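Dock iron/sulfur cluster; give full complex structure.
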Amino acid sequence: MKVAISSSGTDLGSNVDPRFGRCPYFIIYDTSNDNFEVVNNQGRQAMGGAGIQAAQLVIDSKADAVISGNIGPNSYHVFSSASIKVYSGVSGTIEEAINKLKKGELKETSSPDVSSHFGTGPNWNN
Amino acid sequence: MIISVASGKGGTGKTTVAVSLAMARGYCNFMDYDVEAPNASFFLKPDIKNEQTVTMKQPYFLTETGADFKKCAEFCHFNAVAVAGKEVIFFPELCHGCGGCLLVGPEGSVMEKDVEVGKIRKGKADPGISFFMGDLKPGYMRTITIQSEMDKLIEHDKIVIIDCPPGTSCPMVFSLKDSDYCVLVTEPTPYGLNDLDLSIEVLKSMKIPYGVIINRDGIGDGKVEEYCNKNNIKILLKIPNDMGIARNYSRGVSLVEYDNSWAGKFNKILDFIEKEAV
Ligand code: SF4
């Protein structure tokens, strides 16, 4: 299974980024062979709809699931239409998140957990 | 003649001033361009007789054709479209109606329809005021679509008072663009001064003459007045920080109705603008 994880960095030791739409990178991890690729989140500077653009990126990467800190209603809506599993509220490193996923310790999210525009304000300028 | 009433920050008394100018003079147009939060009707109590729906063109997608709509998602600058396989997920609030989907999408599979983004309400208020208010549909960011429809309703042979949206972003600039004069309302506080300064920057670059009304005079400090004097900016009026004014305001009673002596003061401002400033 392929999973897309919002990441603050480009390796497995990086932290899961709490922002879905405006994270700097996505790590696309294939649990069947433990390979991964890093994708730049080009939409993070979008004026609006960054979450939708990022969700499109996840769909295009052929991921079956997505892991992030927080996922807003627009992105969530796209994922449920595309039948992509959502695991949000996840923190720690990418590696820890993948291990939890493999052990079945992550719980699927059944509704968006932040409102639109989470992850935009002045504190998110890194 | 178009006189707009603006303020760099919300809650300074912009609407109070706009309404008082209109009531003091009467027989004018009153345009509430603050379409995200129109509230002048609370004071003017117009009898709304007529409503006009404002629409924009938005795409819809004939997914049953089995066409690939990927190009629409790639093209949309506002991220209003996502595509998952043969499914299209469309976010109408984000769509600016640019027509791009129709251009780049699969031929014959993208159509357009009119979608309501808000309303313009029209009515009469005393004395003899033709009242117009824009009312944006929640979630839609089509402020300027509504304002530009309102522009067409202006009776140019009359005095026109425009209640602008607060701030200095596009909707404020758009409201001001045809003004002969702008009345800036501010408070004598550091916030007020900062936002006044920003508004003045906008007016200068638009080459619109302006004057300042200081509301809640007595609170804060004297920096706004100092700033105006130093920069040769006309202070049109000072409205004191008065419990009676505030209490009546909260009940929808304007300054002019509360105390008729204000009608004279506001009329004087209009005289000044007509004779000297424009
Ligand atoms: S019409 Fe323009 S703004 Fe609307 S969804 Fe299509 S590309 Fe985006």
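Observed: The first strand of chain B starts at residue 2 and ends at 6.
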